[in-house]
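Lecture notes, continued. The same structure-token format from the folding unit now serves as the input rather than the output. Read the line below as a description of shape only.
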């Protein structure tokens, strides 16, 4: 988990730092993947979590913790990029691709597969696939088929 935050070594306070972030994510109902993606690309906007005073406090602790390391910001960023996918196969996007394929249009599926082929690429083409489903979309129930 430390690698997701760019931590190369373990320090005593790391566990508390990690759990504090996870608690804030739960409190503000922040998406797991998108939160770590935003931290990785330093795009802390459009989420209630990032606007909270609690997050600002946490961010200060995290930045101080990063400064304890000998690794450069570039090395920290690289570790975070290989530890946090930029994009994941979200159910609403998969459903969209399947519906188009059922109608004979495979282009939506092909584009989705191309984006998902390298989830750690952090390229602009992935941006559209990071969005959460609309609140009006019905929630998905998935079942193990094994």
């Amino acid at each position: 988990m430390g690698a997701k935050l760019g931590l190369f070594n373990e320090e005593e306070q790391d566990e508390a730092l990690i759990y504090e972030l996870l608690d804030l994510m739960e409190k503000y109902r922040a998406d797991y993947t998108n939160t770590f993606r935003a931290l990785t690309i330093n795009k802390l906007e459009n989420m209630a979590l990032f606007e909270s005073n609690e997050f600002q406090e946490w961010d200060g602790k995290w930045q101080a913790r990063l400064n304890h390391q000998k690794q450069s910001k570039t090395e920290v960023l690289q570790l975070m990029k290989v530890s946090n996918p930029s994009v994941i196969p979200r159910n609403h996007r998969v459903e969209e691709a399947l519906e188009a394929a059922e109608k004979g249009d495979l282009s939506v599926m092909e584009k989705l597969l191309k984006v998902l082929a390298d989830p750690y690429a952090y390229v602009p083409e992935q941006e559209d696939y990071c969005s959460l489903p609309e609140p009006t979309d019905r929630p998905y129930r998935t079942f193990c088929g094994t």
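Point for the exam: The longest helix spans residues 53-67.
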